[in-house]
Please model this.
Amino acid sequence: MNELTLVIPAKEEAESLPLVLDEIKGLNLKVIIVLADDDLKTIDALKNYDCEILYQSQRGYGNAIIEGIKKAQTKYIAIFYADGSTDPLFLNPMLDKILNEKYQIVFGSRYEKNAKSYDDDIITRIGNFGFTLVGNLLFSLKISDILFTYIVAEKQIMENMDLKSNDYCLCTEIPLKSKKMNLKYTTHPCIERKRFAGKKKVKAIKDGLKILFSLIKNFFNSSSFDTK
Model:
């Protein structure tokens, strides 16, 4: 995996992120942590770790991922979580689908056979199923978990998407643009663990409404998202 970079957006993850880095330190890959320059507790928690730190120019989960992808120098990238919920066990099989099955992007899924989420509650589970259904119906996607951004892809492919969403709408922008660009994409069953420590940053209702509005807007704005 020496040609793989983990792009890890981190916001106030001083408790969980060191545990994540301890878990992956034996893997032969690169790590870029993307966070705000005023997140002093998280920055201090990283001082004993061999990873690249990138201070994002704007705020937001999506912005951290976009800037991390641009910074990566390897052929492949993976979007990885700072809270410990993404299990590195699945990196190899997801990357293998790119290397040996010639897919360009692989989406982790919590809702397939042999997959599971230990982090879901009733609201997020209903939301995840609902948004996935909407995405599949409106944009003819073939995906089972539209909001899970545990993704392995070719770095150049991700840059070519010209991603714009600085917030959690990036979760849906990536699969929509994969469809638009006629990429060869697939899914892989994953087990989402409970976060190691700290608190969730996603505001289920507020962020969910933003994502829903974004999907509807993209459906009617065919000039920018002709995915049919």
